[in-house]
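Progress report, Aim 2. The chain analyzed during this reporting quarter is listed below.
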Amino acid sequence: MRRTSGLVLLALAVFFATLAPLLRWYAFPRLAKVPPNQYQDMVLEAKNATLLDYGTMKARKVPRVTIVQTLKGNVEASERIERTAGRDVVVWDTLSYVQGPDGRMVSRIPERYIFDAHTQEPVHATGETVDGDPVRREGIEFKWPFLTEKRSYAYFDAQTRTSAPIHYKGTRTFRGLEVYYFEQTVPWTRVNFPKVMPVDGITPESVASTGTTRWYTTVRRFWVEPVTGAPVYGEEIHKEELRGGTLLGGRDKVTAFAGHVKMREDYIEHTVDLVKSNRTLVLLLTAYLPWSFLALGVLLLALALWLEARGRRPAGPELPVSA
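Predicted structure tokens for the chain:
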């Protein structure tokens, strides 16, 4: 009976010891994925910002500039790309909508971002665009990979249509979460005018014909929860200028926008709560269950060996039988 019990325990020990790495290295890459139908929005604000008045072509101080970012998963497009890509693909249709203190549109930049559902690496396919212009992304955008590392990553900048390193700058605590802080500085770069301009009748082509150009620089900062790879907070010190040309009336340059853009408080709270719950799910696959199963396997093995040792212990000397 002991021998049978020992064999059962040994089989269970092998099962749980094998299941531990399978959860981490086989199940985790297949189960931890960005859902293709995800939808979310985010509101950011730049208080006491500088904004160009296109009526007078002069920069003025305004109490607030609001940036609304929406992200919508395009399931139909992702399924179509998956048929040839041979992996799980997510297609995000995003819109960055900037409005002034009077509620009027300042700019609107749509994007289509196509990436691997697990690794977040870009997947190059037809439709990968920024403001209607085809692009070929390198590196990440919006989200870091699951199990983010303490290193620099290539990060795609939608304004310049290029990628550059975003650097790991240390580990911090944010709203009770341990996060990795990343920072990227984009130097002054000439960029395209948005396809949709804030003044009726003005087009990018008509502005370009005056010889005026648009320039941009930013310091981009993210606080990233490393288990999920989700930013829990982000901000930018953002500046735009119009330079040269007859549109400026002889001036060398004028500020089009300057402000410290930060996430609005209610969206910070919602994001932190969401990331905390998702973090637990990822840790179940990468740490809690694998280590628990491994420990259980070792315990069952020890118990099986103990039963085997007891079963092989020699019996004591027989006592004499009295007449």
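Helices lie at 2-31, 75-85, 204-208, 265-312. The chain has a mean pLDDT of 90. These observations will guide the mutagenesis work planned for the next reporting period.
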